[in-house]
Amino acid sequence: MEEANAVFHEGLDMFYETQPVTSRAKYTHVLFAKMYDTFLKPSILQAKLNNLNTKETIELLAPKIGEWIRNNSVRERLNLCNDVKDNTKAAQLRSQGKKMFHPNVKRYIEAIKLYNESIAFSEKGSTERALAYANRSNICLKMQRFEECRKNIRLARESNYPGEKLIQHEKEVKNALAKARNKNASSSKVSPDVVEEPELSYPVKENAPQVANCLELRKNVEYGRHVVATRKLKVGDVVMIERPLVTVLKDSFRYVRCDFCHGERPFTLIPCEGCTMAMYCSEECLSKAYNKYHRYECGLLRDLWEVFEEVPLIAIRMIAIAIATFDNNPETLKDHLDALDESNVNGFTMDWNKATQQDIFNTVHVLTTNQERRDSIFVAFHIFNATILHTLILERTELGPVCGANPAFNKFLLDLILRYMQIVNCNRKLLSFNAYKVKEYEDESFAVGCYPLISMLNHSCAPNVQRITLRDGRCAVFVIRPVLEGSQLFDSYETGHTLHEREMRQSMLSFMYSFQCTCEACTFNYPTWKVLVEGMDVTNSEDMAKHLYYNRMLSSHEDKKVRKIMAELRSFLNETPKLYPESEVCFTQVEFVRSLQVLYNQTSENAEYWKHCKP
């Protein structure tokens, strides 16, 4: 038991090193550690001595953890509180935005983010909101974004903007738009560039058009459910293209992107009137978000992000989507899941052409939790978080009265939170885009999602496939190492051998996913970037010149140039599979993946502005 305790705390320390974690989230872990050391150890020891299985352990620990939370002022100690509009806070944020907008500073994007946060905190119809919209229109005017400027002027007026200052802005916008229309009318029309999206490289499965017919889902004792190729696959092949069931915008993008469609719309975002966290690109997205999930999470968002990070939030959103899928009748959801035969749910054999939303929900509900693999302390930690979340849901959402009137559903909801937290912990994937960072573009994640079929891919620290987020939000799975017929497809759970040494990778995977990695990279201790760079033949001027050329072409971020080199990169990787993980192959693989990101990822719509923005 002490060994498991040490592994848990080592995993937390490692997590703090690799992930941005709030001080309140860290304190949540401190509280759990205190509960474990002073109260829970005897119960966990009892579970081990009695050889209780995981389900029985949960039944034993859940009431005790709930009792401790109620008796130890956890709400006050975590500073859990309702999210409310605050015009004073809005004024402070707007003042900070004005400092960023100052002619001597000109950090316009930072100013926009602060103005958006001010709008989110401001009360509907308040002077503060009107002033923030007006300030946002100033930036749009300065950046010559005239349509957005006009929309902000309208929003400011609808919020009862005081005074006549907007009249001059409106005149400038009208004149600028008139000039732009005249210029467009006198110039010859230029056909817009056609954006090519990838397609599956082989015929689709008859029942699942998002999967190539060369893939099968198999199951065995060693790997559980896993995906196997029924033919030889080449580097560059596209074998899956899937849309996520649920996505959650990363906290750092909530005042830049729409919470529903994730579109980058910082100049025109509008707020949710029930919280200070969610903003939308339109009334349509606001309405869709509310109906699909936000009605059940609105009062929880701020505490979820600040106290628990992203995993519980995705779990709550999954539950919200599930309830909405069953016509917002929680008890109908319970009846459905009580009757569901999980062994018969198979996303690879299900007919997606005829699938209902309830059928699609089933494929996510049965994703692995790894619950049976978890040590009792890890199970207890999830119960601790799930119990706090359950309490907040009862207090702040319309599910409270339902649970109060139906004790069976009340327990079902707690069990569902616990299950989905573990599903998310094992199956969440990053969605990324091309962000402009100090002279060049870099791949950066903007959201986290959960996919029914892509989640079937097992992990390797030397993966043979790569997930690429497409512009429309779908995810394409590309082959990046040749795959033999009958071989398994392996994804990376963000822990490749080039990034982390074996000991670190295995600690991360054990803590996050509860398995001991035995992939080829761990078995043969494949090298990190540091070792690969040190092993490069710097005297080979031809190779060095080639990689400098590739880097220059990729850095240009121009489709034609990138496509020109991608064929060379793909050909080399297909011809040298047995040389992996030699430096030349690993570097070429990275360049090939980057070419895919350049061609198919979203690119920041404000990238051209970022190039000229002060660092």
List keywords for this structure.
615 residues, alpha+beta
Average predicted local confidence, pLDDT: 90
Biggest sheet: strand arrangement: 4-8-7-13
Question: What's the Cα radius of gyration?
Answer: 26 Å
Shape: globular
Share of helical residues = 40-55%
Largest sheet: 4 strands, mixed
Number of helices: 24
Q: How many beta-strand segments?
A: 13
Structure description:
The protein has 615 residues and is α+β, with helices and mostly antiparallel strands. 53% of the residues lie in helices and 10% in strands. It has 24 helices and 13 strands. It has helices at 2-18, 23-49, 54-71, 74-77, 87-101, 108-121, 127-142, 146-158, 166-186, 283-292, 301-308, 310-325, 330-339, 357-365, 376-396, 399-405, 407-427, 502-513, 520-523, 529-534, 541-556, 559-575, 583-600, 607-612, and strands at 215-220, 224-229, 238-242, 246-249, 270-271, 279-280, 428-437, 440-450, 458-459, 465-469, 475-479, 490-491, 602-603. The strands form five sheets. Strands 4-8-7-13 form a four-stranded mixed β-sheet. The protein has a three-stranded antiparallel β-sheet with strand order 3-11-10, covered by helices on one side. It starts with a helix and ends with a helix.
